[in-house]
Design brief:
By secondary structure, this protein is an alpha/beta fold. It has ten helices and 14 strands. It has two domains: about 5-240, P-loop containing nucleotide triphosphate hydrolases (Rossmann fold); about 250-335, CobW-like, C-terminal domain (Hypothetical Protein Yjia, Chain: A,domain 2, 2-Layer Sandwich). The structure holds guanosine-5'-triphosphate. InterPro entries: CobW-likC_sf, CobW-like_C, CobW/HypB/UreG_nucleotide-bd, P-loop_NTPase, Zinc-reg_GTPase_activator.
Amino acid sequence: MTTQKVTPIYILSGFLGSGKTTLLQRLVNYWQSQGLLPAVIMNEIGDVNLDGLLVEERVPMTEMLSGCICCSIRGDLSMEIAGLIQREAPDVIVVEATGIANPLEILDGVTEAALYIKIDLKGVITVVDSAHLLELYRNQKGKTFRLMQEQIRAASCLILNKTDRVDHDEQELLAGVISRWNAYAPVLSTVRCDVEIPDVLESLGNDSRLSAVLQASSQEEEEVGGNNPHAHQHSHEHGHTHTHHDHVMVYTHYLSGPVDSGEFESFIANLPREVYRAKGVLTFSDTASRFLFQYAFREPDFLRITPQGEVPDVVVFIGEHFSKSTLEQGMRALEKA
Ligand SMILES: Nc1nc2c(ncn2[C@@H]2O[C@H](COP(=O)(O)OP(=O)(O)OP(=O)(O)O)[C@@H](O)[C@H]2O)c(=O)[nH]1
């Protein structure tokens, strides 16, 4: 057998819609500009990978859909990593977890791959939506707040993103809060994850934070008796919280045809607050091109796209305790209009 090279692996963490894919694109572009071949493992809780549309076709990509790699399909992650390395021999791999993933569990899945393939886990980069964190911090409760806290604690580098959606004082407040939760990771404030990528990569060079996190993760395993995906929420002396995801719902609606852009926008403006993330591909009856639609923490965004290959018109809604049938009726009404 030939000596395998060691493949560096980066984990992208951060709540739904915080900007992980935006950062992923920048990382991929940077590595390509250095003449390297990056590969991507994308994990989505829905059954369509729309983020994949934002990644160039020549970037090898493995999709892990319809489940969260930190629980229901965690065992598959190490296999995916090994398979990707054997097939594509990439120079570097990025794992983009679902926004509801607990980073400690992903670290576990990645380190499992190290048992049978040469990898070098570089660290966890956590992207934070400033406006969203600010709201949760002010309320100081809820599963999302605890999960975001956990994602921040596990980071080796923190990207405080969407600073355009908070004012200067709020940004300072958030930077302080984040540093209290995680005193080790450097915090980089950004709009659209616009950072000097070498700064991010260099900041991961110091791996003392990563070892601390890995140690906490393995101690936790021992305490809770191993990999129990349905473990109910519990905290203990390390202050880590395992959140189970039974409460997160996904509704995927395939559209039968074009819809009116104005009507769609007002439908989105009136989404129940329980829907905290949506994305899709749409054809509007009043415009010629197709659009990639995004909705994150109540902010909609439309990007003109020309998808490669066959891509259906579809909208995926993610949230908690919302009525799927109400959304379905709303979408059907748009189709009929
Ligand atoms: N206002 C604002 N919007 C941003 C910023 N960064 C990203 N966005 C938008 O936020 C939305 C979500 O960004 P993504 O990069 O897809 O977020 P994500 O974390 O990959 O989302 P999931 O994969 O669903 O968890 C998109 O519409 C982005 O254009 C920012 O700094 N400010």
